[in-house]
Fold these 4 entries.
Entry 1:
Amino acid sequence: MSIAQNSKVLVVGGSSGIGFATAALAAKEGGDVMIVSRSPDRLAKAAKTLPANVASKSLDVTDAAAVERFFENSQEWDHVVVAGSATNVGPVRGFALEEAHAAMSSKFWGAYHVARYAPIRAGGSLTFVSGVYSVRPSKQAVLQGAINAALEALGRGLAVELAPVRVNTVSPSLTVTPLWDRLEAPVRDKMFKDKAAQLPAGRVGQAEDIASAILFLATNPFATGTTLLIDGGDALV
């Protein structure tokens, strides 16, 4: 299945990574796409390479009042995707509480705010992006796993509350995105190589892999309340 021509698609966190790939694919399939991000610079950079039918606006989804204002006079959306968040990771006893609260605010409460205020047509969709740590905990990312699990539970509950709007979650493993550009190239390349060797799929994820899964769930009329692992088998090992 693919995005219907001229469908109204909103991608939160669409300026880079998985969100960018989702916006690009939705636009390629004929969607009328808007990306939002709290970074005007990233939006401007993304706009240079995305198709002309992709609009952009700045929005900080951690600010509930700003999200409410954004959607106050908004059109009704066919598909809303929440793909972006800003979260650091670390062990619970070594992770600053301020950073922990900020991570929860960005990934969970940001999604919650969008779900609360976004007008979505009946039969349309809302899709979250969580992560494999919800089912395969890492001792270095306990909070991240908890946030992912909370996001997945939120999706299941909203599938019931918001019906006939369909609500789903895609859960990826390690994915090649600009997020990892902060690492030195040799360190980053070794991380990807080592992870690929561990995974049954034999490679790490690409943003396009996750984007195609997002649009599959968004456009499948019988998919709701689903958490779809697109993780190369990471949850198995």
Entry 2:
Amino acid sequence: MAVAASVGLDVDESREVLMSKRYTDDVRADIAAARQIGVTGVPFYVFEDKYAVSGAQPPEVFVDVLRQVWEMTRPQLITLAGPVDAEACGPEGCD
């Protein structure tokens, strides 16, 4: 329980959780989901339920994956041309 306390967890609650089967169904569901997507070892990281990195990788791999995921998932802004003197409106309404 020293580990639980060292990271700020409640020792009594940690002990109770470890001695009970409170999260058994959740853990089994996570294992089943991992098997379904082909996870065969750890570590295994999934981003946006679509992109995966398997095994211990150098930081550069994660930076590259995160950049790719950002590019694929970020909102795209579309600017429409309008009259130069058109009224601009914000969250509070138009000025």
Entry 3:
Amino acid sequence: MSAPAPAPEEKRLHPASLVVRWLKIVPQMLAGGIGLAATSEYGGVQRFILFAMFAGLIGALFALVSWWRFLYAIGPGEIVIEKGVLRRRRRVIPFDRVQDVAIERGLIARLFGTARVRVETGGAARDEGELDMVALGEAHALRDRVRPGARAAEAAREAPAAEPVLFAMDGQRLLLSGLFGFSLVFLAALAALVQQLDQFGIVDWDEWVTVERAEAAGRLVTLWATLMLATLIVLAGLAAGMVRTVLQDFGFRLTRTQAGLRRRRGLFTLSEVVIPLGRTQAALIESGPVSRALGWYRLSFQTLGADRKEGGVQVAAPFARMAEILPILAEAGFPAPPPPAAWRGGPRRALIRWGAPWAALALAAAAGAWLIDLRAAIGAIAFVLLGIAALLHWRVHRHAQDADALYVSHGLLRRRLAVMPYEKTQILAVSRGPLQRGLRLATLIVDTAGAQPMRGIRMIDLDQDEADAGADGLHAAFLAARAARKPRARRKRPAKRKPPAGHG
């Protein structure tokens, strides 16, 4: 009788994680101390220093206890994570359930030679498995062992293959892409700062903002002042977008590996993610109005277990020409989009559903302006503009099919082109609303595995018969694509032993 396999060795995180945990705990405690010192009559510099020293000691104690109580083990076919100071929680993640393993390296982690490993299984939990601050070599070994299996990792180490570069961004393109990343996140930061100052009583806005000062500020508001303020906001938005792009996509590099596409990027937080080609469900080509006019696009893949911070997708080329995107699609096994002549839209009677609600609201607002208040005309104009936008949206909502995949393009300003091979189909549904039934229209919904809610591929307001026939055709194409795949090799069962001659 063979001896039982030894239990996997339990490990703790790198000791540098004590510093990270301490840096997370202490600022929260100090924030409360600042508020206490600002609102209490017993505040003062000496009392705040004593409170800061006490917070530092308590934070170090909490960091030490939580580090000591965090254990993980890598077994022959599973990852076991056990954590919790008072309430213990033990999580077992089998290797065959792992959808993705991502490695991130922040500034502190790079100083200590460590990394954060995030294990995603595609489940509903946001934090399936996370090992913060493990040694970099151990992080790479864990990823190689979990994803392709130990034998494939050993073979890859014995005969390392060069990783061809599929896409990379230099400094000039990085700065250019930052110009298209306009962001007003700084306004939210200013609003949060104002709220905190008011909450801690550092600045009393009710006392500072008086009627006299408001009237004086109103006299200063002129056309030139408004234009200057708008210009400053635009410049600040461009600067914020550029900073965010540089921090996120610095050193962007996409290479081809045996497991899929390896993506590296980041300035302070260096992230490394492998996009498994076998788990990609759809390709997304996105563009804004200005970038599309200048020929720049963004390519990403919807995958099983994709990072939920990015909306369930993994970016493969954040700022690329179509000539650079097509080879990446081919490498990932996706066909190129068809020519413009192959695209089709819905019937013209669908314009009634797209424009009629806005037209009714515009007429109601116009009647209110005529009978009640002239200012309601502003609402009528707004509804008319929204109706025009809806009609333009109907015009650009197109779909196409060929022998390999389904293509759907939608979006008025932010255009998104989805490419979905037939074999990736997960759910087919045909829905009809009350107005659609009256106009004999229907919406064909095609969902893939791992798709986020409300982000499925939708062909809106097709002819009712066309939608039904399209669902049947997509189901037949799905079955044909699955049948064309190479069947898995079945294990041969050992032949039954024949009983010896003369056996009863």
Entry 4:
Amino acid sequence: MKNYQRLILSTATAIFLFLSFRDLGFLAWFSFLPFMFVIYNSSLKQTLLFSFICGLLYFSGVTYWMLILPVKYTWPIMALLLSIIFFIFGIALYFIFTKIKQPYLRILLIPAAWVLMEYLRSQTLLAFTVGIIGYTQHNFLPLMQITRFTGIYGISFILVLFNAAIFETIIFSIKNRKAIFKYLIISISVLAVFITYGIISLNNNLNRVIKEKGYSEVRLAVVQANVIFGQKYSEKGIEIIPEPYSENSYFKEGTELVIFSESALWDSIDENKDFKKWAEKVLKNEPLYFLIGQYLHNEEYSEYYNSALLYDEDLEVVGRYDEIHPVPFSQYIPYSRVLGFLDFLDFSSVNLIPGRDYSPVIYPGKGSLGVNICYETTIPSIAGNIRNNGAEAIIVISDDSSMLDSIAPWNHLVFTKVRAIENGCYAVHCGNSGVSGIISPDGNIIVKSELLNKEVLYGSIYLITEKTFYTRLGDLLLLLYFGIVFSLTAAYLIYRKIKKTG
């Protein structure tokens, strides 16, 4: 294989993977094939080069929206850092192809290598999960139901497994000079089991289950204020006040909880006098609770928190959640003692203090609400931990106004959608500029807003107490898979060495 051919094939994989995030999710089922052929026919030196090229092209594509951010050099830096993932995966593929001659083991080992990279980069305070390929299947709801057991990594696993099975089928058929489909049949059988479970799960009538279980209903108003980035806080909260629903009431009759986006208010509600005056007037006529995203600080203005506060009918704070995982190098500098020299990357005006408490917010008389703020919904363990602590629904508040009309706000809604399925509960996504939505436990978007619109979404959620396997045990199945596959690989290599020397 010529180098120009390797370049074409590596570019094809990057393009296919990029497009699979653009509502062309079917491409992910064979996107890795060109790259696998590149590595299969390359030396280690060529592997290093074309793995880096493929990774750089892919992650440049899925993070291109960073060009819109105030500090534009964040994009090339992030693309370079993320390309290391493909670089390491390429090296792993090279050694799998050169050291492992058993096709069945390779089919199991290749997805293990990829998913391990996805899993590791979702850990620690440096976690950045953009580009996890499982999200490409978010509209394939029957398949997505397996995330109740495996999390999003289970979807990535089946995608790469399918790619590996196709690859081994082609290689084996070429070597034997006839079409042999045994590897592909096995992978299709695994996929069929997953999809069958998903179909059965989806066919369980959600309304019937809710009626029989008697879950508490919460009627919501989700406020999408659509305040332009850079103009927030200019009028002490008046800019986030929505248009009234009717002449008789500000919100739709029966509404119980009004949700405002991340950092809707700066400072305490007393400092936002226009908003407070409006809220007091509304609450005189309508019995409502408000959940509001606010940036808070201590008296010395030395510590800032990105918080969500729950207010009762008297505008008293009855619950609070502080963001546990701010966006690294955007809202704060993680591991500042070690990485403080990178503070030039931080374009925020404050350095947030991460919260520590995974407890849900108690909604009096109803139940418990788990809150995720902004980037937190991209990390499965945060929603899982809060749900394990008693949350019966997930409320995500975000501000993607700096992303304008890019794909990023849509992707943010997808993250929340997957968290709903993983945890088997309702989820609400409230964005300042969109896309906002209310999502059922099976991943159906019940109602959603349009991007860059000022509007209010109305709908109901039900507070579900039962937890999924994934909520209760997290990534146990994934870790067991890693343990089994890597143990088999070690045993295989030891056996080959003994056989060779004996």
